[in-house]
Fold:
Amino acid sequence: MAAMAFSPAGSAPAAEAASGGKPPAKVVVIPIRAQIAKPELYILRRGLKEAIERKVDTVVLDMETPGGALDVTFEMLKALEKFPGRTVTYVNREAISAGALISAGTDEIHFAPAGVIGAAAPVLATGGEIDATMKAKINSYLKARVRSISEGKGYRGEVLSAMIDADYEFKIGDKVIKAKGELLSLTAQEAVKTYGDPPQPLLGAGIAENLEALLDRLHGAGNHSVVRLEITWSERLAQYITALTPILLGLGLLSLFIEFKTPGFGVFGVAGILLLGVVFFGHYVAGLSGHEPALFFLLGVLLVAVDLFLLPGTMVPALAGGALMLGSLVWAMLDLWPGEPVSFEGGMLLRPLANVMTGVGLAVVVSLAILKFLPKGGPWGRLVLESSVGGVPGPVRALNSGGGEGPAVVELLGQSGVAATALFPSGQVEISGRRYEAKLEMGFAEAGAPVKVTGISEFGLIVEVLS
Structure:
């Protein structure tokens, strides 16, 4: 499925013809266009793996980032080291903070005319200043890492050190490039300015109007084939989740607070857990592209579980979940080709659909055949009513802690009792010393609240709270 993520730009045969029969250079362009976080790491890794498999000559990072997490930056630098070919950063607009460090890990840094790079000092995730002692340790380590990846690359190590440490004075001969007390940031023109004898550019290898002009400079016009890495839906979703993390975190904590202040466990508790789960594990969705059938199947299972345990008797979530599960099974059996339009000609849908329906039919028939040999009770025995009297569905008998049978259902109508558990809106009530599954038509009630039986449903008693 990874092949779906690549979009070829240009024709390799045409490029070979234009270069006089010489095989054109292979180039992969990887976009780094958001905050440096786990989604960007996954995008870079996927692009580099594909580039290695395709025996690509040059990888270009299309860079436009405000910076991000330092640990992810180090992981991205490690990933770049594994690519055996030429690595180039094109600062399309800005490479700030972590973006500057990642750029330093490539062989060459080129700029768009309005490109800016710099300000790579470490700060807290909130944007605040780090403790002075800790900051000195981090700066020392960062500058050592920069020197290790900048050896033999002119002034790059000194330039990056000046971007990291405000107390670092950067001079070339008698020329002070950056005085103490400020962080270094460079425009495209400043980055390509030459110093020393022999003259060397400060940081940038050149300025190119756009990516196409850069590739022509690197490999010659018409002498390269380009493949652009396309961001998958899951990677895009992970980027949005990363950007919305503060909002999701706040909503999750608010939901849990409301849940703790209300009786029972219900929708706010589930919402809070899900929102915090998205905050802590949301970046993992970046790798889910290509697994859509499994995701829809799990969503179907979740909806069925919601119907059984949170909204018993509503049936709508269960029906929707069942439809998703069956549909995902059919989807998983379809013979789809990456990048090709979906076509249902030639009976492509018939065989998967027949396979699923046959499997479902077989399961139903066998289940009915062995039902009478299976023990009664279990989860369903606690959820549904056991039998009916006079055509009225209801619990003819119910077991309490002491065992025995409950009264006929018609005798429960109009009787009063108490909520044995919190009703939110479902739970258990106690009537004449026996417990029954029950549900409020609206609202919720704390354990111990007085209730009255107003009706009977397929899944238990219907009660109302007595004022």
